[in-house]
Amino acid sequence: MTTFGKNPHVEARKKLNFKIFQGRLNTTLEKKFKHQRFAERFAMANAAFDGMSVIAQLASLTTAFMMLSYLFVGVHIIARVACSAVLVLAIEAIKREATNDVMKGIFQYKEVEKFPALLALITVSASIYISVEGAKILPDFFISDAVEISAILKSSDAIHSDFAARIADKEAERNQYRENRTWKGRLASKDALVIQQYNEDIKALQMEKDEALKALNEANQSAQIAATTAYQNELERVQVQRQELGKQLVITAVVFEVLFLLSLCFSWWYHAECKKEKDEGETAEVSTQVIEKQEKGTPEVSSVTAEVQPETAEVSGSPRQHKKASFIDYEEVNETQEVTEKTIEVEKVKKEFTRICPTCSTPFVHRSANHKYCTRVCMIEARKERMKEDK
Fold this sequence. Notes:
Elements lengths: L7 H25 L5 H4 L1 H27 L7 H33 L4 H24 L1 H4 L14 H25 L7 H108 L1 H18 L11 H24 L4 E2 L6 E2 L11 H15 L1
């Protein structure tokens, strides 16, 4: 029976998890630290700034359209919308073209012309002013007007009808009592007191009616005052909200204009850096091609040097100082100067290699003191020849 000090499945699972972790970590490191060109690194940022410039210009178009539409209030609604749209589009198009021209002058030519700069300044200032004024108008559309709440007034008809019925009942009882107690057109003293009590009750009801009407009138006045106060408070609240929203929209309009300029600036900087990177890459490619061509053409130049060196040996010598320069001597001096220039060029080319392969006679640059052959093939051939000679 085999016993285990540790669970082998757990150990295998740990190793597998470690391998998975290492693989994911290596993949992440390769992605994070992969070399990318400038154009690739900031491509997403450039696209985001381009979208931001479009959104900022659309916001500027909206606020400017709201402002300009109020300039043509007396015109028909279709003509007003058409005129405002054409004017806004013209201003925004001029602003974009002029700003692009200024940015191009800054990043490409390192110089700004006066007329495009002045035109861009005027159009941007006009756009900011129109956008700010339009932002002040927008709160009237976003926040509705205060609704006037009419006070609920109670009617006095119920009081009149109630007390009229009660008074009528008392008068009817009084009249009935008088008819029943009258004898020969006269009432007894005690009956006269009852009639007088009826009259006092009717007078009390009349006074109670007046008090109820007075209380009802005061309640209606209080309700009307409360409704008026609530309406005034609502008006103040709406006005305060519109002012706060107007300030926020004004700040937003200015921020959008700044974002528009910043987006154009970043876009031109991005393309200028991409162009610089492209030019540097092309120069590097051209330089590598030139170096390859020079390396390929080195044997031919070395043979030329072998031919030119004897001529230079004949010409080299002490200059003629005591003899006057004649026409023939002038030609000889020119020839010597040409030959020496050729030899200088040849000497520069000869410095491109340090050794010549004894097998194929190809010049090369040695890497160490024992580096004798240009390639491994030449070394193997030389070894084979030595083995043949030893046999």
